[in-house]
């Protein structure tokens, strides 16, 4: 279908072809030629889309046959037509076969050069597959806009530690495919997003810190109402006040610059009167990152910013060590300099990393008050509050509880009775002693002041959860091998400003780390089972086998058991071994004439067989279940083959089966079965052994042994053993046999036709190849994704 028209704002004609590619290669070549003829006779913008029924490369097919000749024709057509095939996002493949095994990229949108030039940022996306077995493919085209809205970056942020790292990291993020303009726009978006996220996180962290500091100051002020503060508490309070002031300064700087930005951009009612004055004033120092960014401010301008807390702490540490041997305790040093210990610790770690200093850990264990302990230290213990609330003449329980509150009343009663301070009557509470001391409050104040207590008092407070242990960590610091009174931050780039100002002569450049790792490569990884499955498929295809459709996990008992001449009393048909369906519990569609022949062969035999001699029940055959083996698919395929003039066939399947088994290191309730069968005239047991030698030799197992076995639907039957060179022992690798006449003849196959078959699990050879000893590590919900990413790329072979 060809649609011709125009698009608003575009003078050129538009041609859109929506096609469905034919299956025959000759018809495809004719279609390509017709499209080339149309394009040569009509100038304009061309879009060709649809199901081309062809792929360009081998990796665009999975589990389906790649035709190099058709691919060459398709690529030649795209080249001669001057079309562009953009990378498709969303999915690798657009078509999924009905059995869920085969995947191909059949659908695509091809664009001409004029379209790409007009909309260079176009993209193609495969959408979720909902209405059919093909994915919808969407073309998104946005006109290039080289003037995105700029975003603000305050000068006040430039002095905050870590801001430059955030911007540099965002600028180094990958920008994807596309032209340079698109990549540049993506880079700016990354920087904007990183700055917004950083600023939001910073504001949130400062808000939490501010609230915590105010809460701590309030606690100290409550204590000050009951007793004088110690020297340490006073210093701590001043330090907290200083930190609050510094946080307020940062917040005010942001507010001031926001106001200046708004005034500059939007103006005031008197803007027209003041414009000439504004033009003469220095403009606010606002860095704007946009598609036309102004160059960053020179380094000599940044040096005029006020020093940050980090810089102050670093200068204090290095300056102290210039005239002293060491800093014995970072905590005491922080108090002496009036800088938070956290900032001092961060500086010491940084300096230690660059060997400016050598730091040794200091750990001190001390007790601190819990929130409940702080309350009691300020207001008194519950038992003391309860005692003081009782007048000499006594008080009723209800009135006392109302006076103290439920929590204080409950705890106070328990502790006061334990201390024998009060007498609790049924309705009245009275004092037993005239005077008491609040020892709990006194102990809590001692701990808050840093005084030592005996172990008995410590244990008593611990049991009441009024104190908790605190490990204080600090450092002792001395000069390191790279010590210098002032650290010069090494430059990472030589800029134009460095050259113009001559500062490059004094700069110390950061050394290249040639051992640093690059960005990790992110991409999909094939599961070991999928690798081995694909290799198994290739072996079957090389041997001339055709894949059977195995998309039905639910099967009837008839095709799973009865058609295979498996009696209805067989233990495998019990619910302990098979998953039966509750809804729908039975099937209603079975070939009646074939069902009758199967019933007869089970009950009374035929074709030289005596049968099983029991009453065959139709309701048992109608039960639905999760198939226990893919031989159920083989029985369906052989029955379909018998309804046509006979033709020799080779079939294979690899798919999931389900058995009600206990899960352990070697068994799962859900696993994969590999099955192969050959149907032809005059096949013998020798043919079966020859095919098995050929099949397993391609797996790297040339040394085979066979052991007689029993299967209800094969006679004779053999277990297959292969010698594992790595394990140095014989390993059972599969089961095999020749389908019984009682199974084949009721289907309608000729009497001289025999079927040889064999089967094995997919998990066992995979476990052997990848050295996995627990099947749950290979398949199921407990699989480690690290195994999928790190497993070696290997081919079958031992």
Write up this protein.
With 798 residues, this protein is α+β, with helices and mostly antiparallel strands. It is built from 28 helices and 28 strands. The strands form 8 sheets. It has a 7-stranded mixed β-sheet with strand order 20-23-24-28-27-26-25, with helices on both faces. It has a 5-stranded mixed β-sheet with strand order 1-2-3-9-5. A 3-stranded antiparallel β-sheet has the order 4-8-7, with no helix packed on it. Helix 6 packs antiparallel against helix 7 and helix 15 crosses helix 16. It is extended. It catalyses: tRNA(Phe) + L-phenylalanine + ATP = L-phenylalanyl-tRNA(Phe) + AMP + diphosphate + H(+). Keywords: Aminoacyl-tRNA synthetase, ATP-binding, Cytoplasm, Ligase, Magnesium, Metal-binding, Nucleotide-binding, Protein biosynthesis.
Counting DSSP E segments of at least 2 residues, the number of strands comes to: 28
What is the distance, rounded to the nearest whole angstrom, between the alpha carbons of the first and last residues? 55 Å
Structural class: alpha+beta
The geometry reads as extended
Number of helices: 28
Strand order of the largest sheet: 20-23-24-28-27-26-25
Q: Which segments are poorly predicted (pLDDT under 50) over 5 or more consecutive residues?
A: 263-306
Organism: Deinandra increscens subsp. villosa
Protein name: phenylalanine--tRNA ligase
Subcellular location: Cytoplasm
Pfam families: Exo_endo_phos_2 (PF14529), PheRS_DBD3 (PF18553), tRNA-synt_2d (PF01409)
């Amino acid at each position: 279908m060809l649609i011709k028209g125009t698009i608003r704002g575009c003078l050129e004609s538009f041609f859109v072809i929506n096609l469905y590619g034919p299956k025959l290669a000759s018809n495809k070549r004719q279609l390509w030629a017709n499209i080339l003829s149309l394009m040569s006779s009509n100038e304009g913008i061309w879009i060709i889309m649809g199901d081309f029924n062809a792929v360009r490369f081998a990796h665009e097919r999975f589990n389906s046959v790649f035709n190099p000749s058709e691919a060459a024709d398709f690529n030649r057509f795209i080249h001669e037509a001057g079309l562009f095939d953009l990378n498709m996002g969303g999915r690798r493949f657009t078509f999924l076969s009905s059995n869920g095994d085969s995947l191909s990229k059949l659908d695509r949108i091809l664009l001409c050069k004029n379209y790409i030039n007009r909309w260079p940022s176009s993209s193609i996306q495969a959408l979720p597959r909902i209405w059919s077995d093909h994915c919808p493919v969407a073309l998104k085209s946005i006109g290039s806009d080289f003037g995105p809205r700029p975003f603000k970056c305050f000068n006040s942020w430039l002095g905050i530690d870590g801001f430059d790292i955030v911007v540099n990291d965002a600028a180094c993020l990958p920008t994807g495919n596309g032209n340079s303009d698109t990549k540049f726009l993506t880079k700016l978006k990354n920087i904007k997003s990183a700055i917004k996220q950083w600023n939001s996180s910073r504001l949130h962290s400062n808000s939490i810190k501010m609230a915590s500091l105010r809460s701590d100051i309030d606690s100290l002020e409550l204590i000050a109402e009951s007793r004088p503060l110690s020297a340490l508490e006073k210093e701590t309070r001043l330090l907290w006040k200083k930190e609050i002031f510094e946080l307020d300064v940062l917040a005010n700087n942001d507010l001031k610059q926001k106001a200046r930005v708004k005034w500059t951009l939007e103006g005031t009612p008197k803007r027209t009167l003041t414009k000439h004055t504004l033009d003469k004033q220095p403009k606010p120092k606002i860095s704007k990152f946009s598609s036309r960014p102004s160059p960053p401010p020179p380094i000599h301008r940044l040096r005029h910013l006020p020093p940050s807390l980090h810089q102050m702490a670093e200068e204090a540490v290095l300056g102290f060590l210039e005239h002293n041997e060491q800093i014995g305790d970072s905590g005491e040093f922080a108090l002496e300099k009036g800088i938070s210990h956290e900032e001092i610790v961060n500086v010491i770690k940084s300096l230690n990393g660059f060997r400016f200093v050598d730091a040794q850990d200091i750990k001190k264990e001390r007790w601190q008050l819990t929130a409940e302990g702080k309350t009691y230290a300020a207001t008194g213990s519950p038992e003391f509050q309860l005692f003081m609330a009782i007048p000499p003449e006594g008080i009723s329980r209800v009135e006392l509880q109302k006076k103290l509150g439920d929590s204080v009343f409950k705890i106070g009663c328990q502790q006061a009775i334990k201390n024998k301070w009060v007498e609790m009557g049924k309705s009245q509470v009275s004092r037993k002693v005239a005077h008491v001391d609040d020892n709990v409050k006194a102990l809590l104040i001692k701990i808050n002041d840093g005084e030592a207590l005996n172990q008995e008092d410590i244990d008593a407070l611990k049991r009441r959860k009024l104190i908790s242990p605190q490990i204080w960590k600090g450092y002792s610091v001395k000069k390191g091998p790279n010590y210098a009174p002032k650290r010069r931050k090494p430059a990472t780039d030589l800029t134009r400003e460095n050259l113009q100002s001559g500062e490059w002569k004094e700069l110390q450049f950061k050394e290249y780390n040639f051992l640093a790792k690059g960005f990790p490569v992110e991409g999909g990884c094939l599961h070991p089972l999928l690798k081995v499955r694909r290799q198994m498929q290739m072996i079957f295809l090389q041997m001339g086998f055709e894949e059977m459709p195995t998309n039905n996990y639910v099967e009837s008992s008839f095709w799973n058991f009865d058609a295979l001449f498996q009696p209805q009393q067989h233990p495998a048909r019990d619910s302990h071994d098979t998953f039966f369906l509750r809804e729908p519990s039975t099937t209603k569609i079975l070939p009646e004439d074939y069902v009758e022949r199967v019933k007869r062969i089970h009950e009374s035999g035929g074709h030289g067989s005596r049968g099983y001699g029991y009453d065959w029940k139709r309701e048992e055959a109608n039960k639905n279940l999760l198939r226990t083996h893919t031989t159920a698919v083989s029985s369906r395929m052989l029955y379909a083959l018998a309804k046509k003039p006979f033709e020799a066939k080779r079939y294979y399947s690899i798919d999931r089966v389900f058995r009600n088994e206990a899960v352990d290191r070697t068994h799962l309730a859900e696993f994969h079965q590999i099955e192969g069968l050959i149907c032809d005239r005059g096949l013998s047991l020798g043919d079966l052994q020859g095919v098995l030698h050929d099949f397993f030799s391609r797996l790297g197992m040339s040394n085979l042994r066979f052991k007689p076995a029993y299967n209800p639907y094969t006679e004779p039957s053999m277990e297959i053993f292969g010698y594992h060179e790595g394990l140095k022992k014989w390993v059972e690798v599969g089961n095999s046999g020749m389908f019984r006449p009682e199974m084949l003849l009721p289907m309608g196959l000729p009497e001289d036709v025999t079927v040889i078959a064999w089967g094995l699990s997919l998990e066992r050879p995979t476990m052997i190849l990848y050295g996995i000893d627990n099947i749950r590590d290979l398949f199921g919900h407990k699989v480690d994704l690290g195994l999928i990413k790190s497993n070696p790329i290997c081919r079958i072979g031992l």
